[in-house]
Design brief:
Blueprint lengths: L2 H4 L4 H14 L4 H19 L11 H13 L4 H20 L26 H11 L3 H13 L3 H5 L6 E2 L2 E4 L8 E4 L2 H13 L19 H15 L7 H13 L4 H8 L4 H5 L21
Antiparallel strand pairs: 1-2, 2-3
Helix pairs in contact: 2-3, 3-5, 6-10, 7-9, 7-11
């Protein structure tokens, strides 16, 4: 008899084993957090039906959860992501002998339209610059995001000595390798202006608060959202600065393979998908030199 039938495993114990497995696979902390959130949401829903053992979950229980979140306004894209988390979780339990079957196998993903990345026009990012110009620190943050395509987490993790001789060094971060990105004149100028007024503290993070603490991702996101609103740029988020960098570089004829390495994409397809939005002129030859926005 399968041990999964005779040795019940609580949701908490199963989830902890699953998260440990993800960490051993060197999945990013954001991925681990997302899986943890999705499975905990399922756990809470099933607890309301007095189901507390992962080993007793069956397909109808999962289908009921999907109906529940759909009825409560979750988009098809969000539902699909949660289904993916659930499928990965129960596949892991089956492979480890912690469940007799895979109750998530019959679940199907809802169909939804994939919207193209939001790319700021030249007039929009100029308006953003104008809105933020009196905030020297956030001007430097926005220039780095817009001129290098760095991720917001990478920007928050920058150290003072990561800016060196006109280049920006992105340190190895979780499963993302280190890389070096050329800095254009406007980004260099914005950073130097900020360094001139940066509080003199021992913390070596590049971007810090007035009290000398590292500027967190959520602080950066909140601030930039506020400046988007002040600039009248609608429907844009912080990550769209990265999208804008990639799209405008491709439109300017920058080689997709070179650009893919610059922004740290793991697959060339992640970069080349922007070609449909911002097609380079037919008379441009690909270059390995970034253009300045």
């Amino acid at each position: 008899m399968n041990d999964a039938l005779t040795n019940p495993v609580s949701f908490d114990a199963a989830l902890e084993k699953f998260l440990d497995h993800l960490r051993l696979q060197k999945r990013s902390s954001a991925t681990v957090v997302a899986y943890n959130s999705d499975i905990n949401q399922l756990k809470s829903h099933l607890a309301g039906q007095r189901i507390t053992q992962a080993t007793t979950v069956q397909t109808p229980h999962l289908e009921d959860f999907i109906r529940h979140i759909t009825a409560n306004g979750y988009t098809a894209k969000s539902v699909s992501r949660k289904i993916n988390s659930i499928k990965t979780f129960f596949k892991f339990l089956l492979e480890k002998g912690l469940h007799a079957t895979d109750p998530a196998a019959p679940l199907t993903h809802p169909k939804y339209a994939t919207t193209p990345p939001r790319v700021l026009s030249e007039s929009e990012f100029k308006s953003l610059r104008e809105a933020v110009r009196l905030d020297i620190r956030m001007s430097a943050v926005i220039e780095i995001l817009l001129q290098t395509g760095a991720r917001i987490s990478e920007t928050a993790n920058l150290r003072v000595d990561d800016i060196h001789k006109g280049e920006l060094v992105i340190r190895a971060w979780e499963n993302n390798p280190a890389r070096t990105i050329p800095l254009g004149k406007s980004a260099q100028s914005a950073v130097q202006n900020y360094l001139a007024v940066r509080p003199k503290v021992t913390d070596d993070h590049l971007f810090i608060t007035k009290t000398g603490r590292p500027l967190l991702v959520r602080n950066i996101r909140t601030s930039i959202d506020r400046f988007f609103k002040a600039a009248g740029v609608k429907g844009a988020k912080v990550n769209d600065l990265r999208h804008t960098f990639v799209a405008h570089q491709l439109a300017g004829g920058v080689d997709p393979e070179f650009l893919s390495k610059t922004v740290g994409h793991k697959r060339l397809s992640s970069t080349s998908k922007y070609l449909d939005q911002m097609k380079p002129s037919s008379n441009l030859s690909f270059s390995s030199k970034l253009i300045e926005l």
